[in-house]
Design brief:
Chain lengths: ~230, ~250
Amino acid sequence: MSGWAFLAVLGVGTLVGLDVASVPQLMFSRPLVAAVLGATAAGRPLAGLAVGAVLELFALETLPVGAARVPDWGPGAVAAGAVLAVTPQVSAAGAFGVVLAALASAWLSGWSVHLVRRANARSVTALAGALDAGDLGAVKRLLLTGLSRDAIRGAVMTSVALAAAAAGFAMLDRGWSVAPLVARLALASAGVGVGLWSAWQLFGHGPSARWLAAGLGVGTAAAVLWA
Amino acid sequence: MGVTAPPIPGFGAALRRLFVIQAAWNYERMQGIGFGYAVEPILRALPGGPSGEAYHRALARESRFFNAHPYLVALAVGAAGRAEIDGEPPEKIERLRAALCGPLGALGDRLIWAGWLPACMAVALMLVAAGARVWAAAAFLVLYNVVHVYMRVWALKAGWREGLHVAAALSSPLLRYGSELAGPVAALLVGAAMPALMGWLLRGAPREAAAMAAVLALLLAVLIGVVRRRASGLVVAGAALLVTAAGGVLWP
């Protein structure tokens, strides 16, 4: 990856990191979008599509309901798309390694969000007097500090995810000794398995359960007919 | 109360600031700092302006603890801003803010996080499977954000219109029918998207392989359900993929 491409990917990763919670929550941090953006920054948008779609199935389990601590999929998906985009010949095994790295990155990145929020809490405590006096300057300072922390977090996590994705790709691309179809089959099964469980959790009770079953039926029929 | 509400002072600025409402999210006041920042343009209309005593007291009050769904929080910002401008007693405003956290959080979770978001993503995944390529991601962003941005605008205006009586806005047709429809629609689309995407991921593979993948996916979903108290789906699937990777490398 060239220096410019790296900077572009880092920039995209930072913006995607900010989008998760800080600004503007337009959902370009969703894995499908983030992976395509990462691949676009690296010069080949289409390279991020399949990996983004697979990661999206995993992400269905961790919708940001309530104030729960959830994995942050953005930086890992950006890195996964970028690494696949700069690889001329993408093997199924290499893509498998990139997905594994993106899963680990999502977990690590979710933990980094928690650290930023703890640091923000310390800043709030330090400025409690000014906040209780209704000082707009204190409010603005806290917002800017929070944004800066989150931007740095996004950049660092994208760098870490890039390194992990490159290592994951290289390790499995060279070392995989089983048929490539096994890698595709494992990725599809794992993604859809998590997706099925998540869908059951979200919609498996009450009136939505019937609609979920109907959707599964229609989707299966369509997949069989198109095959 | 009603449709004769005066225009919202600082509407544009308040709306823009709603997009950074979680920039200083923390375990102390959660969205409180962002809430204060978003409502601040409205508070400038208080007697005495931004240098007046009323403004500072109101800003201090509005920057305290708050947490709700980040889009529907606009309803609370509008309502609290209206209550401050109307000169309602501070205790009433504090009670209003406290009372809105739970309902706005629960409603937003049901309507957006467990409804509109998965529904839009399912459409995007089906578009991927249908060959829309990267346009699927663009379609997702447009589809999702039309409703997202509309909801923020509507919520800010509805909150301002109703003020302390904002509960009326919570039972508006948009939210009532929206939350009733969101679940079934999302369930149907997500259900349809998964097999379609699996077919796309395994295109060109023998039918037996696709059938095996479907069975494995079902088994994995059951396994996640069995061990759900000890590990998340991400951990279980990650472990399964790690074992597969190790097998792929070590297989002679």
